[in-house]
């Protein structure tokens, strides 16, 4: 038996410090803790409490065979052998071939170690080379300094600033729209 089979963890995309793995239903409580944590949810805009029952429903078989507009991975720390966050695409538009990146590190002791940068770069490569996306975009709100810096390090280019777009912590703040085109990403990664 190879490493990982014991606990049902197998990499879908391999990285150096982390792998991107399929989310496992046994992590429902963990995901619940992350998504309800005041500091973690602050800029993810999880404004409604999320119950474990709701999370468990994500793992129920669906008869919906339409094209997915959403894909999520768990960020799994290879050395520490533990799930620490999530990253994925939502709003995938198969006609225009674009999608939005979301990501969060739920285990706060892993913040500041550039893990979101590695996870996002793996996700972006997957988006361009497997899903055949043309453009990948991301939105960050002004007070989220960590994400603004991470977006630059990932290689996103800023396309627009939407004034007073989002209500965060009692005030309207600007939304910064970042994007990356496949041709520019290929140029950077040849
Ligand atoms: C935002 C988040 C994804 C960043 O992930 P991360 O792996 O910690 O990112 P990094 O390690 O690359 O750190 C990002 C940058 O923020 C900087 N930073 C850390 N704390 C900061 C602070 N309080 N103010 C300003 N910058 C800060 C770091 O110094 C780093 O920049 P540097 O490498 O130039 O020094 C992570 O903190 C998180 O999950 N937060 C909660 C959920 C969330 O906000 N998700 C994003 C929604 S868009």
Structure overview:
- The chain is an alpha+beta fold.
- The protein has a domain at 11-134: 3-Layer(aba) Sandwich (Aminopeptidase).
- The protein contains six helices and eight strands.
- The protein has helices at 28-36, 38-41, 52-57, 115-129, 145-154, 182-188; strands spanning 11-14, 18-21, 71-77, 82-93, 98-105, 135-141, 157-168, 171-181.
- An eight-stranded mixed sheet has the order 1-2-3-4-5-6-8-7.
- α4 (115-129) crosses α5 (145-154).
- It is globular and about 40 Å long.
- The model has no long low-confidence stretch (mean pLDDT 94).
- The structure holds coenzyme A.
- Coenzyme A is lined by residues 40, 43-44, 103-105, 111-117, 140, 144-147, 149-150, 153.
- The site of coenzyme A has 21 residues, from β5, α4 and α5.
Q: What is shown here, in short?
A:
The protein has helices at residues 28-36, 38-41, 52-57, 115-129, 145-154, 182-188, and strands spanning 11-14, 18-21, 71-77, 82-93, 98-105, 135-141, 157-168, 171-181.
Supply Rg.
17 Å
User: What is the fourth-level CATH superfamily of the domain at 11-134?
Assistant: Gcn5-related N-acetyltransferase (GNAT)
Q: Helical segment tally?
A: 6
Which overall shape is indicated by the principal axes computed on the Cα atoms?
Answer: globular
Q: How many E strands?
A: 8
Bound molecules: coenzyme A
Describe the main β-sheet briefly: 8 strands, mixed
Secondary structure category: alpha+beta
Low-confidence stretches: none
Major sheet: order of its strands? 1-2-3-4-5-6-8-7
Mean pLDDT: 94
Span of the ends, CA to CA: 36 Å
CATH class of the domain at 11-134: Alpha Beta
SSE sequence, one letter per element: EEHHHEEEHEHEEH
For this structure, the CATH topology of the domain at 11-134 is Aminopeptidase
CATH architecture of the domain at 11-134: 3-Layer(aba) Sandwich
Helix content bin: 25-40%
Strand content: 25-35%
């Amino acid at each position: 038996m190879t490493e990982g089979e014991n606990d049902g963890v197998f990499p879908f995309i391999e990285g150096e410090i982390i792998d991107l793995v399929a989310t496992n239903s046994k992590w429902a409580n963990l995901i619940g803790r992350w998504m309800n944590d005041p500091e973690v949810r602050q800029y993810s805009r999880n404004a409604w409490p999320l119950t474990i029952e709701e999370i468990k429903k994500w793992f129920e078989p669906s008869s919906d065979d339409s094209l997915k507009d959403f894909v999520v991975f768990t960020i799994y720390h290879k050395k520490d052998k533990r799930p620490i966050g999530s990253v994925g695409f939502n709003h995938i538009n198969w006609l225009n071939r674009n999608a939005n990146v979301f990501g969060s590190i739920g285990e706060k002791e892993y913040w500041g170690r550039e893990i979101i940068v590695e996870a996002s770069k793996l996700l972006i490569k997957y988006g361009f080379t497997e899903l055949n996306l043309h453009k990948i975009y991301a939105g960050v709100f002004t007070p989220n300094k960590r994400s603004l810096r991470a977006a630059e390090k990932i290689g996103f280019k800023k396309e627009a600033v939407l004034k007073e777009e989002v209500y965060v912590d009692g005030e309207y703040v600007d939304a910064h729209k970042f994007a990356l085109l496949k041709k520019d990403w290929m140029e950077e990664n040849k």
